[in-house]
Write a structure and sequence with these properties.
Elements (H helix, E strand, L loop, with lengths): L2 E4 L1 E3 L22 E4 L4 E4 L14 E9 L5 E8 L6 H6 L1 H4 L8 E3 L2 E6 L10 E6 L2 E3 L14
Antiparallel strand pairs: 1-3, 2-9, 4-5, 4-10, 5-6, 6-7, 8-9
Length: about 150
């Protein structure tokens, strides 16, 4: 069954963000509603930890979803293609990672991105913030998106 994960948006005043044709919010790059399911192929769309390999373009598969008491997704367990990807993250959250140790399951949490709402940094505009998982489906991707991968 697909899991539907809505972004948390913190917007200035009466600002209404533009939703792109493929579902991302304004300039954030993050999906307003992220649809995922177990074993889905995903790609990271934002740098979380460059030293740990959790970078834009890292690919893997979803192993599990960890939900809270309200049934909302708090964490997504991803098995990245590279065993080294997420090693520090797994060590940082041993209470989560221990259950997925055999598969190198890495916990991925929501990330926030902040951006200017005006057309230019010099115009009057507020700052908007979006909180969402830095993942997207990746069954197919362009050569541009694969730039960090070796072919």
């Amino acid at each position: 069954h697909p899991v539907e994960i809505s972004a948390v948006e913190n917007l200035p005043g009466k600002y209404v963000p533009i939703l792109t044709s493929y579902g991302t919010i304004d300039k954030s790059g993050f999906m307003r509603i992220l649809f995922l399911k177990l074993r889905a192929r995903v790609i990271m769309i934002s740098n979380v930890s460059t030293t740990d390999g959790l970078v834009n373009g890292a690919t893997g598969n979803i192993l599990d979803f960890i939900t809270n008491e309200k049934g909302l997704v708090d964490c997504i367990i991803v098995v990245f293609d590279s065993e080294d990807c997420g090693r520090e993250q797994r060590n940082r959250y041993p209470e989560i990672s221990e259950k997925y140790k055999a598969d190198n399951g890495t916990p991925v949490f929501r990330k926030d991105v902040e951006y200017q709402t005006g057309k230019s940094k010099h115009k009057h505009g507020g700052k908007a913030k979006v909180l969402q998982f830095p993942l997207r489906l990746a069954w197919g991707m362009t050569a541009h998106k694969m730039q960090v991968k070796s072919i």
